[in-house]
């Protein structure tokens, strides 16, 4: 085991040496997939053990991102579709999300909730809101915690917010139609004011985004890794950055 760890450390250093500061993505989105399957593969009947293990990995990810110069990280913890899971699975998962959110605040990260908080139980929504308020003035890495998140719901919420804003100014639908463009909608997204994600990572071997950041990912690069999220290592993260740096981004062409 000691020799194996040494080999990995040497490999990590080589990967780091290959990375240029100019090639580091500003914003990385991560779909932390595979917690339940990890627990089952480990012979555990309680899948919440996998969720807890995956939650512990988030802090490691944030340190990796800060060390390499990433400015924004969006971590998808729970989709709005996941809210339909059986209560015996959903309730422990929500408690874990509440716990890890508070842990991230205690560690000094700046937390921004991303999702439809009105769909969440009051206790979870309040933890997320309090985390944002408590950490709002912190410098450095921005951590978007995506809970109750869905890409289609985000776009619908953005359009709804845009309509409400214009209605409050006494403008008609016809007035809005005359001036509406993509930037108007972008200003009402959950991630408004942030750069769009340059790199989206999904673990567990699934090669789809499942609606993650539908609007913002128009020009993102995707990286799919076969490891379940609890097994995702720093060397895997560095490989994702190396892969991103090697690509020629065409921005839609």
Automatic annotation (TrEMBL):
Name the residues annotated as catalytic in the UniProt entry. Answer: 33, 82
According to the record, cofactor stoichiometry and binding are noted as: Binds 2 magnesium ions per subunit.
Gene Ontology annotations for the cellular component aspect, listed alphabetically:
plasma membrane
**GO terms for biological process?**
polyprenol biosynthetic process
**Protease among keywords:** no
* A Pfam family it matches: Prenyltransf
Does the keyword Zinc-finger belong to this entry? no
| Keywords noted in UniProt | Magnesium, Metal-binding, Transferase
* Positions contributing to Mg(2+) binding: 33, 221
Q: What is its EC number?
A: 2.5.1.-
InterPro entries, per the entry: UPP_synth-like, UPP_synth-like_CS, UPP_synth-like_sf
GO molecular function terms listed in the Swiss-Prot or TrEMBL record = ditrans,polycis-polyprenyl diphosphate synthase [(2E,6E)-farnesyl diphosphate specific] activity; magnesium ion binding; Z-farnesyl diphosphate synthase activity
Q: Which cofactor does it need?
A: Mg(2+)
Query: Which residues hold substrate?
Result: 34-38, 51, 79-81, 85, 202, 208-210
Q: How does it assemble?
A: Homodimer.
Family according to the record: Belongs to the UPP synthase family. Z-FPP synthase subfamily.
Q: What does this protein do?
A: Catalyzes the condensation of isopentenyl diphosphate (IPP) with allylic pyrophosphates generating different type of terpenoids.
HAMAP family cross-referenced by the UniProt entry: ISPT
Full protein name: Isoprenyl transferase
* Species the sequence originates in: Nonomuraea terrae
């Amino acid at each position: 085991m000691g020799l194996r760890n040494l080999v990995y450390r040497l490999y990590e250093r080589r990967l780091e040496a290959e990375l240029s500061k100019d090639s580091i993505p500003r914003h990385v989105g991560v779909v932390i997939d595979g917690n339940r399957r990890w627990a089952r593969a480990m012979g555990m009947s309680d899948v919440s053990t996998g969720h807890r293990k995956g939650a512990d990995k988030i802090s490691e990810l944030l340190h990796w991102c800060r060390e390499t110069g990433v400015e924004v990280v969006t971590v998808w913890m729970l989709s709005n579709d996941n809210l339909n899971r059986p209560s015996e699975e959903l309730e422990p998962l929500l408690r874990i999300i509440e716990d890890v959110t508070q842990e991230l605040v205690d560690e000094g990260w700046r937390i921004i909730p991303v999702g439809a908080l009105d769909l969440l139980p009051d206790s979870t929504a309040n933890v997320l809101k309090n985390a944002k308020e408590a950490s709002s003035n912190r410098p450095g890495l921005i951590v978007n915690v995506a809970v109750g998140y869905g890409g289609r719901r985000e776009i619908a919420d953005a359009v709804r917010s845009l309509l409400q804003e214009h209605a409050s100014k006494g403008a008609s639908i016809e007035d809005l139609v005359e001036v509406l463009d993509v930037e108007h909608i972008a200003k009402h997204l959950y991630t408004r004011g942030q750069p769009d994600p340059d790199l989206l990572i999904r673990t567990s071997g699934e090669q789809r985004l499942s609606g993650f950041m539908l609007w913002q990912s128009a020009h993102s690069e995707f990286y799919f890794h076969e490891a379940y999220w609890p097994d995702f290592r720093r060397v895997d993260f560095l490989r994702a950055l190396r892969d991103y740096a090697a690509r020629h981004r065409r921005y839609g062409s």
